[in-house]
Amino acid sequence: MNSTTLVAFSKGRALHGAALGLLVALLAACSSPTHRAPVEERRPTVAPRPATPAVAPAPLSASAVTPPAPLPSTDAAAKPPPGAENAGKPGYYTVKPGDTMIRVGLENGQNWRDIARWNGLDNPNVLEVGQVLRVVPPAPDPTAASARPVAAPGRIESRPLTGAGVPVAAGSSPAATAAASAASAPAATGDVEGEPNWLWPAAGPVVTGFDDVKSKGLVITGTAGDPVYAAADGRIVYAGAGLRGYGNLVIVKHNSTYLTAYAHNQALLVKEDQVVRRGQKIAEMGSSDAERVQLHFEIRRQGKPVDPARLLPPR
Fold this sequence. Notes:
Layout: H1 3-31, E1 92-94, H2 101-108, H3 112-118, E2 132-134, H4 174-181, E3 206-208, E4 218-221, E5 227-229, E6 234-240, E7 248-253, E8 258-268, E9 275-276, E10 281-285, E11 294-301, E12 304-306
Antiparallel strand pairs: 1-2, 3-4, 4-11, 5-10, 6-7, 6-9, 7-8, 8-10, 8-11, 11-12
Helix pairs in contact: 2-3
């Protein structure tokens, strides 16, 4: 290679290098953030919307607003039992599980029919646990006019009854023997106040004494068919077998304070609302709802059991 050719080759390489450097510089200038192309932002011209005058909302009237209907309650406990507002008040009784109208009457010393009437019960056989019942007579209305019949003038003569005496079992106690003489006494009304003239209801021996938790009375044994006597003048408020544990039962109400109960009989000789006399035969001893022949006898003062041995005459 001669010198002319070598010089030309060197110039070519130099030009080539200069062109390459210029290209790199241009690329760097394009990527630099300080050499951005100017951008013109244009927004469309929108005509202004005319202002709408503000309108105040009309007030709602009370009749236009309908409150939502209350949802029906599905909780049975939300409804109180009948008479719950009287719970705990004197003269009222709260029904317990297993109660019947007969038991409520016995526990409160009242005729169960009277309790049903005082409470306006359409079906006395249906009681609700927690139900509160009036067990004393309602107070009379002081504003109500009361009329009392005027007795016609003249003398009223009273004569003793001459009916047959009450049968008395052989070998009976002196108290039972006295029952025969009581047969000639006038019939009792069952409304006489004060302490009744008590009589032993049966002639047999007492095998179980009073216990205010379990027995609540006396157990008198005998033979099936032995007579059971009314322990005092009174009125029959129950005769039947509707009270569990008592069998064939007679309940006599003597006054507003006392009643007596005669249980486990084999036969009942009286009916409800019948007036009976002290010493009158009202039943025959038996073993209904009991393991042996016996009379379970109770005296209740204002519904509470008391020991009959403290009230009955000594034998």
